[in-house]
Structure formats: C-alpha cells, structure tokens
## 1
Amino acid sequence: MIPDLAPLAWAGLVFATLFVGIGKTALPGIVTLSVAIFAAILPARESTAALLILLLVGDLIAVWIYAKDADWAILKKLIPSVVVGVALGTAFLYFVSDGVMRRSIGIILLILTALTLLLMRRGTAETIKEFFARRSIRSLYGALGGFTTMAANSGGPVMNLYFIASGFDMRRFLGTQAWFFFTVNVIKLPFSAGIGLMTSEVLSIAALMIPIVIVGAIIGRLIVKRINQKLFNAIIIGLTIVSAVYLVF
C-alpha cells in the first residue's frame, strides 16, 4: 500500500534517503537531517519505522565498505548499555506523544553536545580519552544512544559525540559507527515490529526508497575521500546542534 503523498513530499523523502546513504559512508551527522525530514512528512511513529529499514540498508553497505576498521573492543563494551537504552526508548515511544518525544530528545542532544564540547575544550587529548574510556561514561553514552535511536532514530549524534571525544580517526570512526548501528538497528527491529510500527504503508515506502540509499552511499564514498579529520569533526558537531535545535523547536 503506497501512501498518497504530494510530489513535494516525495521529493523530500528522496533527499532524506540520499542523506541516509551519505551519512552511513561519509558524514554520520547528516542522518539526523533525514530523521527531521521524515518526521516532517510522515507521522512520527511511521517515519521512525520506515527510516529504520533504510538505515539497516545503509548499515549493510557501510559494514561491507569499512569491515576492517571497526574498534571491536569498544563495541563489545557499549552493547550492554545500548540494549538497556533501546528497551527504555521502546517504552517511551509507546507511551508519550510525538511532540514530547521530539522535544525530549532535542533537549538531551543539546545538553550532551554542550557538555561534551566543554570537556573537549578544557582537557588535553590524553585526559579526554581517559575520561571517555571510563565505564560509567561509556555506559551513559551507550544508554542514551540506545534510547534516542529507538525513540526517534536519533542515536547517531550521541554516539558520534562519543567517538569524536574518544579520539577516533575518520576510518576508525566510520567503521566502528557502521558496525555499532548495524547491531543496534537489528536489535531495534523486533521492538518496532512488536509495537505495531511495521505496517504495509511503512514497508511500501521503504521498498521504494532502498535504491536511493545505494546512490547516497556512492556519493558518500566520493565525499569522504575529499575531507580531512578537522573538517569531518566540525561537520558532525555542527549537524548535531542543528538537529537538536530542530527537534526542540
């Protein structure tokens, strides 16, 4: 069942889906724009489900490209707290309204971004890495990442901040991020299905958009070859702030 949307709405979904592919292979922060566009066009819960399928397609492409670059030690340590966050996000998604959901996650992202940037500004590279290597801090970011990604597919900014603050270079960042979100999104899938989000309409939209994800991934590969680490970090932080402000207001 294909939803009856205006041509402009379909164009918006196409651009948002391109951003999914680009985000998974080059600029992770841009996926938050996809979240915003999908939520503006579709009801929040349906947009979350349709985008989850497209994110999984992007994850598979990114995992294939960056298979050898993931930091498996960090991933193994993050997963337990992420699972807790996903469970909490599922309950939050089920009980609260769309408006409360968006504003809550936007506020979380703004606070977390401000605190992360403050810590990065005041500390040395070594002390910052030691701080973010602590179990309590890792668990906090993992749980928040699981919560925000389940509630509104907005876990990317949380984990992107964590990886940047931990001193990951571009390929290590992209490889770890690819495997992290592939694992998280697979975990999310039965939760989304269990609360009735995977409707025929959602599946129809996702099926139409999958080829666009692949095109976006190709564009992303071209982009990542042309940017340096400093610009990479700045873009991700900037996109995190933009997405948080959008969700709040």
Note: The chain has a mean pLDDT of 85.
## 2
Amino acid sequence: MPKVSVCIPTYNRQNLLPFAVDSVVNQSLQDWQLIVCDDGSQDETPERMRDYEAQDTRIRYLRHPQNIGKSNNMRSGFDAAEGDYFIKFDDDDRLTPDFLTQMVAVLDAYPQVDFVSCDHWLINQTNQRDLDASEQNSRYWGRESLETGVIDNLLEVVFIRQSLQVGCTLFRKAALETVGFMRPDLQNCEDNDLLVRLALAGKVGYYLDQRLMEYRVHAEQQSIQRDIRYLEDKLKYLEYFNFQDSPTLEANRQQRLQDTRLLLGLRYIEGHQPQPGRKLLQTYRQQNPSNRKAIFGLVMSYLPSGLQEPVWSLAREMTPRSYMEQMRQGN
C-alpha cells in the first residue's frame, strides 16, 4: 500500500492539469498513489490521462461520464484512496517538490496530529511566483501569525480567520473517515466545511510555516449565476453550524449569515430573480432597517429590467472590489 494518496479532482482543465500531475510525479518522496477524478470533462482530459496511466502504474484515472458535482467527485477519489495519508488539491495548482517529504515527516513524528497544513505561493498563468502577492495573501488570511507547531484555538483559526487551505493540507485518512470526508452535494465552501467539522470533532491540526504549494491565480469567467450558486452554498454552510457554547464564534457566524443574505439578495435581483431577492433583503432589513444596499436592492427589484442594467453597471463601478477580486485580477 502507498504511504500517501493524492487526489486531484478535475473538470475541463486539459491545459493546466498536467502541471498538477507532474508536480506529484516529481516529488522527492515517491511512495504515493495519484487519483485523478474527472467530473465529466468534455475536453481532451481522458486522452491526456490515458498517457499518464500508461507511463506510471501509481496513477489512476477515474472518469465520471456525467457531471456529478464537485464534492461528490472528490468523494469518489477519497473512496479509491489506499494510503494512510491523504491530500486533495485542485487541478490548476502545484505541489513543490518537497511537499510530501516535509509534510509526511510531521505526521510521522507526531502521532497525535491528525493533519498538517502549510502556507503557499501565488503563481500566475505562466507559473511565475509573486512574492509580494503571496505575502499579502498570508497576512490577509492570518497565516503570518501562525507559528510552526500544533495549532491552538483550531476552530477559531479555521472558521473565523479561515487561515488554512485544504489543498495545502495532508490528512491522516482515518481522521477524515471519522467525519465522512466532504459532505455530499456541496459545490462551494466544501473545504471550509470539512475543516470546521474536523475542529468540532476534536481533531488536532499542525501548521508548518513554509510555502510548499503553489496556488494559481487567474481570472475565471464570472457571471451573476455563478455568484448566486456560490452564495447559496455559503448560506447552507453557515446555517449548518451553531456555536451557542462560544459567543464569539456564534456572533461571527450570525454576522456572516447577514452579510451573505444581503449579497445573495442583491445578486438574485441583479440576476432577474426579484421574488427570492426581495425575501432575503426584507429578512435582512429586520435587523438592519437603514442599510442603504438593502434599500437600493429593493428599489431596483421594482424597476423595469431595461432600466436596471445601466444602474447596476454604475453601482459596480462605484463599489470597491473585494480582496479576492483584486487578487484574481492581479492588483
């Protein structure tokens, strides 16, 4: 049996997937199994992966003929994993050559630790690292304040600060099995959801203060419908938990629930779905009656569709971009 099972879920990424696969093949630790689980790609991914399978028997390609959803696809890779340790990372990212060597060493040395996470580089479409952006990203997500060692206040780190990324994390497979790995049918926020459930289950996390992974930043096609799907899943993720025993965590959850309802209500209205948009904004205004964005959205929901688009365009221009938007656009 392999020491480590590596899972790369993929979908229509034939040009970027080889970089991810090659980063596993070129690891300094070679005791691994690689599972590429394909959520029904319609490009040339099957042909590329057949070549990899022919060259290396440690590589297994699992293809679903139809799209079964992000978390369900990842669960299929997890079910096929045979190693004691497990990592999942995305098909447009890369592991640095010593990732497995250094991360496995931590789990081998500390049997009480259930998973180890590290920092990562930000890279662009041409695989160039951006040091300034990487450092800014570490600061934004609170990793600069994490020291090497067992993570104190793990629930706060993974829920409030959201410092850890699943793609930078090596798990004991047994720990993931105790929480059922990814919850089925989630398309977004499934990684955060997993880390929070592990923390609530009393699992022990360890942080290694090194950049051992490369996370690719690139502008993906954005759309109102894509935003809506993300925010719907974020709402489900936040509604799933309850932190009544921790006033700080619960206050953070309630605030994020309110923020998500506001954004989702606005996106519904911008996407010409006024009824669910009004319902969310009216619920939001019960606690925030004078919020200008909510009032603006409600007014917009009653305007003729032909008048809405120029007003939305002006509103987008006047609204400061979020950190994530700035990061994806390179500034």
Note: Residues 224-328 form one domain.
